[in-house]
Every structure is written in C-alpha cells, then in structure tokens.
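Notes on consecutive records. When two proteins share a document, each keeps its own sequence and its own token line. Never mix them. Below: protein one.
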Amino acid sequence: MTIRQKAYNLIDRLPDESVAMLVSLMMLLPKKDVLSDGVQTELSEKQLAFRRMQDLREISKSYDLGDLEEEVGAALAEKYGSI
C-alpha cells in the first residue's frame, strides 16, 4: 500500500469536521507551483509569498472573524479611553 493510499484510508475514517480542519492545514503547506497544463514555472520569492497570502485570505473567509474595524476601535478605546 502506497503512502497516498494510507492517507486516503486515514482521511476516510475522520469525521467531516476533522477533514475540514485537515484541508485548512494542508492549504498552508508550501506546494510546487504548477500551471493547469502541468508545466512547472519558476516564481520569485515575492510571487510565492503573495500567492500564500492570497491562499490564507481565502481560508480565513471561512471563519467568522467579525468586523475588524469595530474590534480595533474597541481595543483603542479600552486602552486609551476617549482622548
């Protein structure tokens, strides 16, 4: 049995919630950049970092993070009061 087959068997035994978490973690792993036709391309470090940032943004959309502006405003008001 190959490592891929072992992984599929383990994933099949996991509950759906755990599979979703595993997929989120897998998206964070560095991966080879391959075009849709299978041709590998050389990307600069900046391009790779930008692509990873975009991937993280997509992943974070699935979580209910609330209103960031409201959180920042509340934190500033708590720390400094109303000046």
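Protein two starts on the next line and is unrelated to protein one.
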Amino acid sequence: MSKQAERAARIGRIARIGDAVAKASEAFVAQRRSDLDAQQQRLSVVENYCRDYARLTEDREVAAQSVAVWRSYREFSGWLSQMSVAQRHEVAQAQFLLEAAADEAAQKRNFAKALAKAAGRAETAARKEADRAEQQALDALGRSIPPHLAL
C-alpha cells in the first residue's frame, strides 16, 4: 500500500470518527429540544392552572367567604405565581441549553464535513498515484516486449 493510500485510509477513519461525534452531538440537540418541549408544556400547565385558580378565587371572593379562607386562596395563588415564574426560568434555561447544543452540533458537523472533504481529496490523490504507477508499469512492460512480438 502506498503512502498516499495509507494516508487516505487514515483520514477516512478520522472522518468516520468525526461523523460519529457530529451525530452524537446532533442526538444531544434532539434531547435538549425534547427537554425544552417538556419544560414548555409544564409552563403551559402551570399558567393554565394559575388562570383557572384566579377565576375560582374571584368567584369565591364574590361569594363573600371568610377572611381566613380568602387569605389562604390568595397565599396559594401567590405560590402558583412563584411556580409560574420559576417555570419560565426553567424554559429560558432549556432554550439557552438547546441553542448552545445546536451551535456546538453545527460546529461539529462542519468539522466532520471538512474531514470528509479531506478524506475525499486524499482518496483522489491515492487513486491518481495508483493510476500513475499502473501506467508506468504498463509502459515499462510495453518497452520490454520485443518488437517482433508487439501487435
């Protein structure tokens, strides 16, 4: 095996590793996207519950229940609001992590593409070298055939 062919094989292996790393990074992006979707869904549930509970609290206030009951409704409503704010933070963090993972995956994919191009160029160079060597061998063989045996 020629040096060019060895180099092409080595770069080909590196390109396959680069592709595997890029695929793993892309799978991580998919996981981050799933995490974001889950956090957004939780936020939606909390916000819907906050709205429903606020309506319920208003209805109960109109019904003129005791101050203690009214206070407990308000405290629980405050807790729900805090939960909503905390969930918004979770969504923002999940979005940030998704964007960071997507950027990293794009960089790794670009690197894998560059490795694949380098591997392709190395394979082309190895083929050209092999073709030249074969042509030289054929030329040498042609020169070694006595003229009376030549076609």
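For the record: The domain at 3-143 is CATH 1.10.287 (Helix Hairpins).
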